[in-house]
């Protein structure tokens, strides 16, 4: 009922965008990753030397490890916390709508502003956290959270782990699709609230768990603002991650080739993470529903 | 048990919200007060902190830049996404392949593309322009945007197409007069998503601009902090100015915004 030429008119702009912002950049990235290049002068083909350099660079190793730590924090801390809050709000206690709106608020505010806010919250002398410890007499707990190489990367993660609004809403939305009959039946059988959560709600939101894990993994892979603005990747590169590594190699060090080989590693790591996540969640099971 | 749950929620709310209140309170203090009495109310509310920010930085200009980029990237992204979603209402050759092609980008960590994006924008002659930044935002967000609009259009009864053809309408007329008017909810959702992402973005905005004339609010926040680093309350005032508009708009449209931002994930 429709000639193919007419379809392609509607398809064309999106294809152009995809070519310009995904396909060409990927080819360009592959090309640059095998060059030695400062962005202005001539390119010098070095084959896989950039990758060899990365594998020998301890900062890159830290960046890889920290990115994995970020992803783990997203999967093991942020997502469960979001699920817990969603379970609490799903019982529709008084004021649950207000709670929902307030918990979501930080997801609307820019990560840039949040990063600076938490930079000050965790600041060694004027920070909220350390001052709170002093006020309640736990002075020994005060700590230079952001300037200690042992805590910097974890301090960077605190706002992300706490601001669960997005994850929580996705859980809540899925929970509202569960048939109330199930809960009524469970009540007749004398199930407690915790049993209802454990045997009805959580199994019924499996696909929301999958979606959240995927979104949070993607978010953590792209994480840039918290490490850049809260610690600058320091001290001694202890809190650097892949995004910041790519950025610094390009902007600060002018090593475009190294930057893009790190970029390729990030994309590969993203692909590996997604495969793992999909595998763990049982893609086949989800396919049946979709 | 009930109290325990309530207490836990309140505690969590406290932990997430107190930093914001502390920020607002501290933005009205003097530097000495901030160090000496971090939790008390300011003795005198220092409106001067806000005056200092507004007089030393062209804040309205940064606002304009951010709004311009947000609007242009949203228009571009939504128009392209709507066109392609309309095409996907029909069956044609390799349809699922094409769909995969325009949406697979969701899984790409686009931060890895900073070098290509920098050169693409340069080659287009759009480096250090608002349009260049907007174009990149539209491109990067397109996959999720397509998913949002397409999911909405899928819920439209496809018989409507046939009815329109029987009435003698062309493909284009069907799009403009039949599909477009009923697709607004999906397009609004996608717009909200695009607007907020564009408004909050930092990496590409700082990569693709350099002069003060094209600085967005998020890039400007970075500069506030370095200019006022000796005077923290003034830096805090700058941050409050930067986040207040978002909070005001959110308080008016919270349900719509929550729906818009999570739409890409909730099918």
What labels would you give this structure?
heterodimer; A: 290 residues; mainly alpha; two-stranded antiparallel sheet; 15 helices; globular; B: 267 residues; 0% strand
Describe the protein.
The complex is a heterodimer of chains A (290) and B (267). Chain A has 290 residues and is mainly α. Helix content of chain A is 73%, strand content 1%. Chain A is built from 15 helices and 2 strands. Chain A has helices at residues 4-32, 49-56, 58-90, 96-108, 111-121, 128-135, 152-162, 165-175, 180-188, 193-204, 206-222, 225-231, 242-251, 256-281, 283-289; strands at residues 35-36, 44-45. In chain A, strand 1 (35-36) and strand 2 form a beta hairpin. The longest helix of chain A is centred in the N-terminal third of the chain and has 33 residues, at 58-90. Chain A starts with a helix and ends with a helix. The model of chain A has no long low-confidence stretch (mean pLDDT 90). With 267 residues, chain B is mainly α. Helices cover 74% and strands 0% of the residues of chain B. Chain B is built from 13 helices and no strands. Chain B has helices at 2-26, 31-36, 48-56, 59-87, 95-103, 114-123, 130-154, 159-166, 171-182, 184-200, 203-208, 217-227, 232-262. The longest helix of chain B is centred in the C-terminal third of the chain and has 31 residues, at 232-262. Chain B is globular. The mean pLDDT of chain B is 89. Chains A and B meet through helix 1, helix 3, helix 4, helix 5 and helix 6 of A and helix 1, helix 4, helix 5, helix 6 and helix 7 of B.
